[in-house]
Design brief:
Length: 365
Amino acid sequence: MRPLPKAACILICFSLCLSLLAGPALAANDDTKQLLQKSLTVFEIDQELARIEQEQSKLVLQLASTEQRLQEQQALSVQTKKHAGQILRAYYMGDRESLWMLLFTVSSFKEALVMFEYMQMILGNDHRTLQAYKDSERQLKDLTSSLRSSQDALQQSKDRYTKQREQQVLLQRQIDTELSMQADAAPVLKQITDLTVQWQEKGIPLFRTYFTALAQAMKQLPELVNATGADGKNTHLIMNGFQYTFQITDQELNAFLRTKNPLFNNMTFRFKDSQVIATGKQDQMEVEIKGSYEIATKESVKGKYIRFHMSQLKFNGFDLPQTTIEAMEKDFDLGIYPQSIASFLQVTDVRLQEGKLSIFLKLAL
């Protein structure tokens, strides 16, 4: 057998070296991705801490204002209570009864009218004084309850801050430890900085742009109730006596959204079993939203509505923390309101199947 040429030997050795290095390189990439994930979480927790601090500042001002109003109301309540007590004692001692006896001492109809007006004035003043006492006590009770609520909210905010701060410190310690084990941490630090800057400058605006457009489009979803097919029949609303079912496929939803905003040409919604998955790509950035629909209530809405609960947000393959999800849910309402479909309808159930969303309604009698 002829020996291999020198160039061939060098090529084989080079290939072997690459194959040996491939495994560790992949592991390093995985480690780097975990570091990037942690750094993104730390950044978002920092944003949450800033939001909590703003919330606490507002609560402290609200608490101080309530305490001042409570002190003023307590002083007023003491005064109204004193006046009310004087009037009640007058009735108890029979002082007011003597006023009625004066009617029998009048000598003319004119005097009777004057006396009657005088009595009305006294009794009316008594009534106003007693009512002022009742109102004062009610306001005092309401302010006391408001003060307790503000104190509880402030304490919960402080507890949440402490918890988030502890998580942030723990993650930062892990990042520092893992970076210290890197032979050359500079490239990893650059990736961390690049990811944070990209998320802050482009990712956050992109998510907020998507959610703003989606919130506006979902308000117009009831338009599909009147949509008809080629046969002239309603394609989305099924009526069965007093029961109604609104159905839409994920393909129909995508088509509807794209007519409302060209931004959705870069995003696709899919209905899976009990889950909504939306994926999009724009300017070399990938976003993913996962969530589900659930029946809920709130004070501003008469009757029940369908709330969209986010369970996962991803940016370029990285998971965003729960604090970011909660902030997005708070800022953007992606719910469905059957009342806007028809005021006489009430939602009873909502189901997500493969490729289809079904909303079950009944007449609100």
